[in-house]
Amino acid sequence: MNELLNVLTEALGKNLPLWIVLSSFSVGLVIFFVQESSHRLRTTLNLLAAVVKLALVGVLLWGVYHGQVYEVRWVIAPNLELLLHADALSMLFVTLSALLWLVTTVYAIGYLEHSPHRSRFFGFFSLCVSATVGLALAGNLVTFVMFYEFLTLATYPLVAHKGSDEARKAARLYLAYTFTGGLLLLVAVVWLKSIAGPLTFVQGGILDTLPAETHSALRWIFLLMIVGLGVKAALVPLHGWLPKAMVAPAPVSALLHAVAVVKAGAFGIVRVVYDVYGVEFADVLGVLVPLGIVAAFTIVYGSTLALFQDELKKRLAYSTVSQVSYIVLGTAILGPLATVGGIVHLVHQGLMKITLFFAAGNYAETLGIHRVSQMNGVGKRMPLTTLAFTLGALGMIGIPPMAGFISKWYLGLGALEAGVLLWVMPVLIASSLLNAAYFLPILYRAWFLPADSWPDEHIQAQRWETHGMLLWPPVITASLALLAGLFASLPFSPLEWAQLITAREYK
Amino acid sequence: MNEAASVVWVISLPLLGALLATVWRQYAATIGWVSSALTAGCAVWLLWVVQRAGVQELALGGWEIGLGISLYADGLAAVMVLMSSLVVLGCSVYARHYFRAQRQHELFWPLWLLLATALNALFLAGDLFNVYVTLELLGISASALTALGAKRAALRAALRYLVVGLLGSMLYLMAITLLYAAYGTLNAVQIAEALQVDPLGWAALLLMLAGLALKMALFPLHFWLPPAHSNAPAPVSAALSALVVKAAFYLVVRLWFEVFAPLTTPLLANALGALGAMAVLWGSWSALRAERLKLLAAYSSVAQLGYLVMFFPLLAVLEGEARQWLFGAMVLFALSHAFAKSALFLAAGILLQYAGHDRIRELSGTTQALPLTTFVIALAGIALVGLPPSGAFLGKWYLLDAAFKTGQWWWVLVLVAGSLLATAYVFRLLGHAFGHLPAVKRPVVAATQEIPALALALLATFGLGLGAMSLWSWLAHTGTGAGL
Amino acid sequence: MVGLSAINPQFLYVCAGIFLFAIGLWGTWLHAHYVRKIISLNVMGAGVFLTLIAVAYRGEHLPPDPVPHALVLTGIVVAVSATALALVIIRRLEDATDE
């Protein structure tokens, strides 16, 4: 019996990354065939898959922490290999995805209670998370590209879900952007592979040994890759799809903005800079400074535009444009402290932004509030939701002890260390001021102004202010964002993990 | 059983089926799908034999080579036979239900099985004249099948198809005549050994290329394809687009790389590649502007055949291992297109039966009414665009790789433009399908129609995209000389 | 290969064959009417067959090469059946009433 168990754990152990990808993929396929009316079956499948995935990720995390190596290889063509590999950086993203997927699943079940085509929705929802986890666990660029394209495919039906002309138009725009980006990325990867051979992710990079005559090609490839990835990461001027994609249901927006799509882009940039080029070699090539400038511009531009949006989700969308670029900025500054700031923001931004979108969805779903100008006094009607929103917003501004503060602190220290404080500091300050300028008025309205009548109240306040499955997800994620900031120095905190990654990235 | 028998069975089984289906009309459908299934089984067996025991050569009836019919099966031929048999099987299962209660039903099966016979015989033909006979058999049965559409448009398309096919065959026959006059043999190996770089050789090569380019609808000789492929009944369209044009392409590959090798200079290869590039751009653009789904699929075939020809200039300059990889990628691309395009046409047939039309603008709500069919269209679309996972993705990957390795970056531009256009036409279709339908009707589609379409689409995407590694080892089984 | 005296008739036949082939090709391409196209194709075929027969000639006192003859026979069978099919479709087209 013991032997059998050993064999089993060993078999599971080696292929663990594959099981993690397949756990949601297979369930997604099953859900497509679930009858529309079988609410309970679908919910059970959804939650089961999310919990199983989280448990598997837990095992994987434990293993990676104890230095175990997990690798799954599959040769798909000569000289072309799919590789799933769990390293510290992928674990950060995988854990974030698995955790937030569970929460978002609960939320989505509550949110889509009575709407049509739920089986289709949850099917693609699961595929979407499989793609995210797959690209997080990708061990080489080939695998990454495949999951990157797969993610586009899986999210398209989610954006188009409502089927209205507006939704389809937004989905078309989304595709136009992301497929063009994906294609450029593909071209860049094939080009790089023809120069550098297998593109396995290695901490510290793999390109610094290439002869000098390849350097100009490497710069072009870097540009193509950043454009390809920047589309999903919503770097200005490639961000046009994101505010439009807001027509999608709130759980989709939450997923797109906090976990899957924009994060895939940002994560890809981190991978390319650190594990393909190597940050020090990228600096030698002189590609980091332009990247940093684009990121800085995006941060300020996104925040400025957010200021002028009355529609709550649009304001949050532009805020995403701005916030994701903190990750890119941290990547583009040479030095371990900035790296820590960028990488840890991957998690922090996810926690905070998903909270904000959940809360926005609750306002819309409970009271019919879609605009900032309708939010007067909503804090008294929906205190817990508004509290969560407040925590998220304060985090975004960077007020201690929220998680966002930690990110900005490390970015600032990193800029100091790298001697680029002169231009990074103004960006950080300007963006924080702008963040405050577009979030604080919302908080003021919500808490301090007297309530009007609600535009369309369709969930009455009973024991809780809204449906339980809508209420708890933002409360949980807001608490996580708070904890990540408060206990940043404890082991297993995102910060601790980001420091572990950073220590391995510098040769 | 004798191992070489597998070569004979893949040809004689469908032929036998065709005869039986003509005699016992009331059982035609059963005979049809049973013999397709058996043929597919034999095709697997053939591939297994080639893989285990190497190239199979067979002189039928004991006649010596040069007089009798000789059959030849190497890795490439066996793979093509398997591709053709699988698509035919899928379409046969589909056709049982599709033609139910239709007048053409009894006419369909004998012609259909004859088409399958002609395809397999062509892939296995051992000399140039056999190729001519199988080409004619293919052209005649394909054209007759197109005419089953019975409307004026279908008849006109069938006629044009027939005339174009005959014209192509005549050009091909003239080339054979020239070769025989010069070298006194029709055996491809002997011709390949004796071939001189002289005006006669050039004339023969160009006549053959012209004839086959016409048959494979290579730009600018593609004009006949869209009407023919879009007006035929769905299973016929599927086979025409997936297999019949591939047969001509297969011959071009054989002749180009094995018989006429001394004449096929990089310059000529580049000229051919340029035609391919134009086919990609023009075909994709026309597909984007197509009003009807079947027309879209037909134009997309023009583009996809263009990609196949774009491999030639790169194969002309690459050497060694990289060249073998690229060659395998080309075959993989052809296979992927065969499965994806047949799946797309079958799905289009379901839509057409369900909605009564296939106008793209009016397809709103298909996702709700026909979810599985829409899924098939999406999967086929993935393979046509060349997104992962699909055989076409790997094909494009190696094409890009070769373009960078040889510094011929202009092919990259064509590929990028073609892929963007393909994305646009596939998702224009899906975008309409995602629209709301005012009143959702209950789907009345038979599973026997949706399942084969789904199986073919899955084969093109997940099957070939993730599990095609053995293809390269299969293709490594080649004879010492030409395969023909 | 062959003597000067033998080349002339063979050469003449080959030329005639190629000429017929060219005329047929030209006709197939240019004529819009399908019956004419079919006739042109048959002219083309006749050209090819003529060339093949000429190729079979091996000298005055030698029997002709049987292989091209076999090819011509097969070719004629194929051409006849294809022509028959084409004519049937043309008739159907004239009888069809839809549109």
TrEMBL record, chain A:
Bilayer topology annotation: Multi-pass membrane protein
Localisation per UniProt entry: Cell membrane; Membrane
GO cellular component: plasma membrane
Keyword rRNA processing (UniProt): no
Transmembrane segments: 16-34, 46-65, 88-109, 121-138, 173-192, 220-242, 254-274, 286-308, 324-348, 384-403, 423-448, 469-490
Keyword entries, A-Z: Cell membrane, Membrane, Transmembrane, Transmembrane helix
Domain of life: Bacteria
All copies of domain NADH-Ubiquinone oxidoreductase (complex I) chain 5 N-terminal, residue ranges: 79-122
Entry's family note: Belongs to the CPA3 antiporters (TC 2.A.63) subunit D family.
PANTHER family in the cross-refs: NA(+)_H(+) ANTIPORTER SUBUNIT D1 (PTHR42703:SF1), NADH DEHYDROGENASE (PTHR42703)
Entry protein name: Multicomponent Na+:H+ antiporter subunit D
Organism per entry: Thiothrix caldifontis
TrEMBL record, chain B:
UniProt GO MF annotations: NADH dehydrogenase (ubiquinone) activity
PANTHER family recorded: NA(+)_H(+) ANTIPORTER SUBUNIT D1, NADH DEHYDROGENASE
Signal peptide: none
Membrane topology according to the record: Multi-pass membrane protein
Native organism taxonomy: Bacteria, Pseudomonadati, Pseudomonadota, Gammaproteobacteria, Thiotrichales
The UniProt record lists the keyword Membrane: yes
Principal subcellular localization: membrane
Record-annotated membrane-spanning stretches: 6-24, 31-51, 71-95, 107-125, 131-149, 161-182, 202-224, 236-257, 263-283, 295-318, 324-348, 369-389, 409-430, 451-475
GO biological process: ATP synthesis coupled electron transport
Keywords, comma-separated and alphabetical: Cell membrane, Membrane, Transmembrane, Transmembrane helix
Protein name: Multisubunit sodium/proton antiporter, MrpD subunit
Ranges of residues in domain NADH:quinone oxidoreductase/Mrp antiporter transmembrane: 125-421
Family: Belongs to the CPA3 antiporters (TC 2.A.63) subunit D family.
Cellular component, GO annotation: plasma membrane
Compartment(s) where it occurs, according to its Swiss-Prot or TrEMBL record: Cell membrane; Membrane
TrEMBL record, chain C:
The entry's keywords: Membrane, Transmembrane, Transmembrane helix
Keyword Transferase: no
Pfam families: Oxidored_q2
InterPro entries named in the record: CPA3_antiporter_subunitC, NUOK/Mnh_C1-like
Sequence intervals crossing the membrane: 6-26, 38-57, 69-90
Membrane topology category: Multi-pass membrane protein
Subcellular location: Membrane
Primary localization: membrane
Gene3D superfamilies with a match to the protein in the record: 1.10.287.3510
Record bears the keyword Transmembrane helix: yes
GO CC aspect terms: membrane
PANTHER family: ANTIPORTER SUBUNIT MNHC2-RELATED, MULTISUBUNIT SODIUM_HYDROGEN ANTIPORTER, MNHC SUBUNIT
Protein family (similarity comment): Belongs to the CPA3 antiporters (TC 2.A.63) subunit C family.
Protein name: Multisubunit sodium/proton antiporter, MrpC subunit
